[in-house]
Amino acid sequence: MKLKVLVVDDEPQIRKQLKIGLNGYGYEVFTASNGLEAITLTAQHTPDVIVLDIALGGEPDGIEVCRRLREWSKAAVIMLSVHNEEKTKVAALSAGADDYMTKPFGMEELNARIQAILRRVGVEPVVSAETEICVGDLTIDLVNRLVRVEGEPVHLTPKEYDLLRLLATHPGKVMTHRAILGAVWGPEYGDMDHYVRVFVNQLRKKLRENPSRNVRYILNEPGVGYRFVSRE
User: Fold this and answer.
1) CA distance 4 to 1
2) Domain spans of the chain?
3) Which terminus of the chain, N or C, has fewer Cβ atoms within 10 Å?
4) How much is the pTM?
């Protein structure tokens, strides 16, 4: 089975050059011209490697695309940029990139970087990523960051969504207050337990559950944290 590579760049000539070059190394190559297309194609084709330009025209940019893909995709990500500044590299790696390359570069080097990543993570093709979570009347579309209860859209703030996604992607696992704060707000918020309580209460209201009567999704672990219901 051919390994699949997704090339994401807003320059048609670069997409064409990379597709021809990577095809020559035996990869199955898909291309995307913007961030939203990249997210959609990743969900559809589950590439093994994503070659992603940082400076995509429009929103989301490459950094945000990488950050969003990391919420559900296991594909390796190599980020590209014309800039070689340390802060740009740090931003890319902090968003979840596995490697970083500065333009211009040669196809031999790109292939070598891809092979190095595949050696680190194993060369088995990526299996289909879970892009939707369904529990009872709740549906979470991880690709489009959409939440529905009983088929109706639920409007969440970015932090509410991040909290729900964190819990829902770890079903049955107890998440401590500190772990939740670190993942959703950042390590500097490690002692702000009340943030979690407030946001969980807001989430429960929007998900139409009453903790005193019908806990359907988010369970209390007194003195420790919270646990999303197991899907088993």
Assistant:
1) 9
2) 4-121, 132-228
3) C
4) 0.71
